[in-house]
Amino acid sequence: MNVTPAGMIGSLPIASPLSGVQPTTNGGMFGNVVEKFIQDTNNQQLQADLSVQRLATGESDSVHETMLALAKADLSLRVFMEVRNKVIDAYQEVMRMQM
């Protein structure tokens, strides 16, 4: 049984070898998907910060748009944290398995 070190997670394909689906070379890697997810979450947070800053400085008077940006950022972060928790739980379950 081959065990991949934790630092090599980026080299694991998303598709299972048993499924018959080959991973694509452009973005089909688990590490790339996670990286994009992190970038999207970060972009949502930055947009919310910018929206709050514009509202505070008077550049924008749309409280509605600011609240929407904050809600999107909050939801994005919550989803990210839930996915992270599930990945950690799955990793811990795999580590508990007896060989």
Overview of this structure, please?
- It is built from 2 helices and no strands.
- With 99 residues, the chain is an all-alpha fold.
- The chain has a domain at 28-96.
- Helix 1 (30-57) packs antiparallel against helix 2 (63-96).
- It is elongated and about 60 Å long.
**Structural class determined from secondary elements:** mainly alpha
How many helices? The count is 2
Cα-atom radius of gyration: 19 Å
The first-to-last residue Cα distance is 9 Å
Residues in β-strands, percent? under 5%
Determine the fraction of residues in helical runs and give it as a percent range. Answer: 55-70%
Average residue-wise pLDDT: 80
Instruction: Give me the count of strands.
Output: 0
Order of helices and strands: HH
Spans of 5+ residues with little confidence (pLDDT < 50)?
1-21
Name the overall outline: elongated
| Major beta-sheet overview | none
What is the gist of this entry?
The protein contains two helices and no strands.
Write the layout of secondary structure elements.
Elements: H1 30-57, H2 63-96
Helix pairs in contact: 1-2
What attributes characterize this protein structure?
mainly alpha, 0% strand, disordered N terminus, 99 residues, 2 helices
